[in-house]
Amino acid sequence: MAKPLIGISTYLEDDARWGVWRLPAALLPAGYHRLVQRAGGLAALLPPDGAPGAADEAVARLDGLVIAGGPDVRPARYGAEPHPRTGPPALARDAWELALIAAALDRGLPLLGICRGMQLLNVLQGGTLHQHLPDVVGHPHHAGPPGQFARHEVTPVPGTLTARLLPTPVSVPTYHHQAVDRIAPGLTPSAHTADGTVEALEFTEPRPFALAVQWHPEAGDDDRLMRALVGAAGGAAPVPAG
Q: What's the pTM value of the predicted model, to 2 decimals?
């Protein structure tokens, strides 16, 4: 039986270095494709493509989609002015990933959003973001020092898909300074931290597998979320309630 093909969105950087090279590059931390492979899928990287219809064509060839973590979403996408701590916009990536998510939702393609991926899902559906979370919760515990993940505990909401996949509170790798503010219509929070930060989103009405989390499963060794995505992409029955 063929392994499900899982597309993963990527960065597009103007200046990347490896070996003797210093060039523009589409890149992605290896944790993402390794997690897909460990979960039983085939990984395909999806760099930004501005051609008309490219997102629809890409999604049509995939069995599942992961929207990876990365830079801050442009605040204008949700009607806000930039906060002083908001990073520079990644316009091509914003447009590409929003189009990928929309195409996946239209087709019922299994979808997993990670960090930025969760924020984009909320923005696409009409929600907003906190641009600098320490302003809201009063501490920086959702990220480690630059380039290092922190860990904190998340508690799934009973009765949700997240809780069926992760039945008990779990310590997760995390690195972010933005988070969901106003939740979009049709979405519901399915995990929180002790300070009230929304850590997972899913759809209120039942639909094919669609889940987004604020943390970084690719930076840890818990592959339950990715296995669920790959299973759904391979035609497995939905995770039973309970």
A: 0.95
